[in-house]
Structure formats: structure tokens, C-alpha cells
Amino acid sequence: MAVKVGDIAPDFNLPAQNGATVSLKDFRGQKAVVLYFYPKDDTPGCTAESCAFRDQYEVFKDAGAEVIGVSGDSSESHQRFAAKYNLPFVLLSDKGDQVRKQYGATAAFGLFPGRVTYVIDQQGVVQYVFDSMLNFQGHVTEALKTLQTLSK
To answer: Which ranges carry the Thioredoxin domain (predicted)?
Structure first.
């Protein structure tokens, strides 16, 4: 079952590119989270999407949100990817795609890693889901629109 608007976002514990373990519950009551699942580090679409989040990162922070990227790549791969493109946010390693599957962030008949963004409010409730393999910029603009409506 895919996670949808109104659901409590499933918690997770995943390693970040800096070696720390990140849990979704760490943000509860503190800030909203923009959780984006992407297929693979350093590929054209994923680079475009991640750099679009990077370019608006301060706007996300000003809106009271943290951006977190998730893929099945290793923490070492994430470290190289983040350094190469100056990504200021956390990238989490979901080896075996367990969290991706838990969220239902798959594409093409569930066979390939999907490109899905979830906007999760401070209470841990999913407020928006954007699922598009090709509209990289849409993940950023739609997440920002949702955050702006939450803060009103």
C-alpha cells in the first residue's frame, strides 16, 4: 500500500552520507520534512532534481522544512554525490529499498525505483505526494506550494 495524503508517514532509521543515523521521528514536533525518493546518484534526472532542491534549500528552511533525499545508493556514493554538487541536505541510504517499498515509491509496475516526493508536516502527517519520473522541477515547486499553504 502506497503512503497517501492524510497518512502518518512511516518512521525509519537510515544511514546518512555523514555516517549518522537519521530517523523521521527526530523531526516530529520540530519541523516539516520534504522527503524525496530518487532512483540513483549522479544520473542526469536525479542530478537535476537534487540540484533543484539545493537551489531552493534556503526557501525550504525559511518555510520551516528539512529536505531529505533517499535512494538505494551507499552512504559513500551519497557522500561523493553531495560533495560534487554541493548538496546542503541529508541523503539517506536505503539499501534493499525497504523504506522505498514501505512508502510505495516505486514506478513502472513496481519494478524500478520511483521518483516520489512527500511533504510531511510537523505532526508526521503526509500533506502532499508528488509522483513524476520526468518533471524534476515539479517535485520542488509543488513541495514549496504545499509548505506555503501549511504555514498560513
So the answer is: 3-152
Is 51 designated active site? no
Torsion sign across C-alpha atoms 44, 117, 63, 68: negative
- ∠81-51-30 over CA atoms, to 5°? 90
On whether residue 2 sits in a domain, the answer given is no
Task: List all residues 6 or more positions away from 62 whose beta carbon is below 8 Å from its beta carbon.
Answer: none
Distance (Å, whole) CA 74 – CA 19: 11
Please give the tally of structural domains in the chain: 1
Contact 96, 104 (CB under 8 A): no
pTM of the model: 0.95
Catalytic residue among 3, 14, 16, 46: 46
pLDDT of residue 151: 72
Q: What is the mean pLDDT of residues 124-129?
A: 96
Range of the domain at 28: 13-150
CATH number reported for the structural domain that contains residue 132 in this entry: 3.40.30.10
